[in-house]
Amino acid sequence: MAKPKKGTSQERNEFIWGWAFILPTMIGLIILNIYPIFKTIYESFFKTGDFGRGNVFIGFQNYITMFKDAEIWQAVINTFKYAIVEVPFSIAISLVLAVLLNRKMFGRSAYRTIFFLPMVAAPAAIAMVWRWLFNAEFGLLNHIFGTSIKWVSDPKIAVFSIAVIGIWSIIGYNMVLFISGLQEIPGDYYEAASIDGATGIKQFFHITIPLLSPTIFFVTITRVIGGLQVFDLIFMVMDRNNPALYKTQSLVYLFYQNSFVENNKGYGSTIVVLLLAIIMIITVFQMIAQKKWVHYN
After folding, report:
1. 229-260: burial string, b at 16+ Cβ within 10 Å, e else
2. pLDDT of residue 156
3. Which of 27, 70, 73, 254 has the maximal Cβ count within 10 Å?
């Protein structure tokens, strides 16, 4: 098809319709993403005034206070503990399930639906169920194992118990992404490998992993960001008088406490800026590292 000449009505129509299609997305990104980022950075230099009005400019005082605040750095450690457990385990389990459920088997659609159900379940309902499972006195887990472990009230293990819930909640979503990636891999590779005598494990590490690496990289990026932004699980599972809260609360949880409970939105914005900086640094390292292990076809 011949390209339209410059200045013709057809070229003008394509230009107008092109902008008409992308403009809603651009407006949404500006209003819902870009503007809030700059607004948050701006508010981090202010102290919230009475009744949310009359904010007072205090420069870098919020940042100085934050870097001296032991609770902030404990929250950073808690956030990393959660992410270090939730991200790799959720990816590994989802990948194995995706490979198993990508094969022809009886009830495959039913199994996929079952694993995806946590993604559509109400977070409040999930929190209630897991609080019952983790209950130290009459919880199902202690009843099955004959123990009396304080899963969510012991400061040493509470954050890892929350990470278990996170793993269970996100497995289905990751699995769907991996299945879509697996379906793009030509079956000829596996047939040729089988003829050459390669076992299923060798095929997994030498065919599946390399060809699925772009999808694995995408899931890793999104899960690291999601893990560092954990809030809802902690908020719904941990009570304010829980003795393990200090060792469990994340940066986003502290942002909520300072911004909406204590009405100190300036300091809360400072916490968000710190989290944004951490996520950006980690993402940059991931983008650099992916050049060595991600294989694009």
Report:
1. bbebbbbbbbeeebebbebbbbbbbbbbbbbe
2. 92
3. 254
List the one residue out of 233, 248, 237, 23 whose CA is nearest residue 133: 237
- Residue 296: how many other CB atoms lie within 10 Å: 8
Per residue in 112-169, pLDDT (tens digit) is 888 888 888 888 888 888 988 998 888 888 888 888 889 999 999 999 999 999 999 9
Query: How far is the CA of 235 from the CAs of 127, 129, 214, 222, 229, in angstroms?
Result: 9, 15, 33, 21, 12
Rounded to the nearest 10 degrees, what angle do helices 265-293 and 209-228 cross at?
Answer: 170
The end-to-end CA distance of the chain, in Å, is 28
Q: Which residues of the chain have pLDDT under 70?
A: 1-7, 49-53, 297
> What is the rounded distance in angstroms from the CA atom of residue 275 to the CA atom of residue 99?
34
Q: Which residue has the tokens 């990289």?
A: 217
Over the Cα atoms of the chain, what is R_g?
A: 24
